[in-house]
Each structure stands twice: as structure tokens, then as C-alpha cells.
């Protein structure tokens, strides 16, 4: 059913726009996002993937392959080498799938699942970079200076973009106007 719906075009375009905006917003707002000692990461791709799971309306989007592709593009675009994102994005899609089985599809449940997704994503990223010596910040500094600002930024994204994204998905999955 995915290949017959508008989602075939809307979902990848939205994912690409989110990939582009993550980098562009971080670049334009760098003085604000990366003001010592604080650091905020824009994670619009995670928002798009998480909300896509909830808004697909019975049309099964192949989220894992798209998450892998988005991770590869994000790694190459942001870092120039293949890295964590190509593994973490699909893991977060899997985590969203698991968590959604235990909660309803209400706004508050979705924001809670997105919150958990962000915490897991950022913490796995921190641990991996600590393991290979890219970062030397201790865990307390990470929680206060990186995770908290990142959560604040991305939860604002969630609240502001929830209804527009839901409208886009409703339009793309509406069979009456297709």
C-alpha cells in the first residue's frame, strides 16, 4: 500500500528536508546552539521518523531502510565518514516501535516516547564518543550542558511541528483525494 500512496513521495522529501534543516539550523544558529559550556543538537530527523511511525495511518512505511539511509547521509554530510547515525537511527525506530505497544497514540504519549528516543539517542552517542576518546566530558557535565539543552530544543520542535506534520501525513494518506 505504501507504493500506491502519496507517502511514497512525501515521506522521503520530508526526511531529506529534515536532514538539510538539521545541518542548516545548526550552522545558522551556531552562536546560540554552541555557546560554551552549553551545546544543543537539532534532531529533526528523529522527530520526522518518530512521528512518521505514528502518522502512517495503516500504510507501512519502510522506516528501518529509510532510517539507515538517513543515517548514512547524515554521517557523510556532517562528519565526512560513516559513523553512529547509520546505526542509531534504525535503533531509535525500533525503540519507538517497542514503546508504542505499551502506550496509546495520544499527544502526551508521543511526546514522552520522543523524549525517551532523544535521551537514548544522545546518551548512546555520548557513550560511543567517550569510548573512543572523542569526548572527555564527565557524565554529569554531559547531562547538564548537552542533554538538557538538546531536550529543551527538540521538545519545542515537537510541540511546534506536531500539528503541521500530522496535517501533512493526513493529506498524504487520505485516499479520497488521491
Automatic annotation (TrEMBL):
UniProt KW keywords: Cell membrane, Cell shape, Membrane, Transmembrane, Transmembrane helix
Q: How does it sit in the membrane?
A: Multi-pass membrane protein
Query: Where is the chain membrane-spanning?
Result: 36-55, 85-103, 110-130, 142-163
Coiled-coil residue windows: none
Report the subcellular localization.
Cell membrane
One Pfam family this sequence matches: MreD
The main place the protein resides is membrane
NCBIfam families under this entry? shape_MreD
Q: Which family does it belong to?
A: Belongs to the MreD family.
Write the protein's name: Rod shape-determining protein MreD
Q: Which organism is it from?
A: Limosilactobacillus pontis
User: What gene does the UniProt entry assign to this protein?
Assistant: mreD
Amino acid at each position: 500500500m505504501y507504493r500506491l500512496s502519496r507517502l511514497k513521495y512525501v515521506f522521503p522529501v520530508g526526511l531529506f528536508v529534515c536532514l538539510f534543516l538539521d545541518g542548516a539550523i545548526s550552522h545558522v544558529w551556531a552562536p546560540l546552539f554552541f555557546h560554551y559550556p552549553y551545546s544543543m543538537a537539532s534532531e529533526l530527523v528523529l522527530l520526522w521518523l518518530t512521528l512518521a511511525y505514528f502518522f502512517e495511518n495503516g500504510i507501512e512505511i519502510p522506516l528501518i531502510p529509510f532510517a539507515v539511509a538517513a543515517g548514512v547521509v547524515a554521517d557523510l554530510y556532517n562528519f565526512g565518514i560513516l559513523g553512529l547515525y547509520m546505526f542509531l537511527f534504525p535503533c531509535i525506530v525500533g525503540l519507538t516501535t517497542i514503546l508504542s505497544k505499551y502506550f496509546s497514540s495520544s499527544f502526551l504519549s508521543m511526546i514522552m516516547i520522543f523524549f525517551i528516543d532523544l535521551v537514548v539517542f544522545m546518551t548512546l552517542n555520548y557513550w560511543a564518543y567517550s569510548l573512543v576518546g572523542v569526548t572527555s566530558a564527565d557524565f554529569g557535565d554531559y547531562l547538564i550542558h548537552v542533554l538538557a539543552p538538546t531536550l529543551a530544543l527538540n521538545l519545542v520542535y515537537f510541540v511546534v511541528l506536531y500539528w503541521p506534520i500530522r496535517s501533512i501525513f493526513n493529506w498524504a494518506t487520505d485516499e479520497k483525494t488521491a
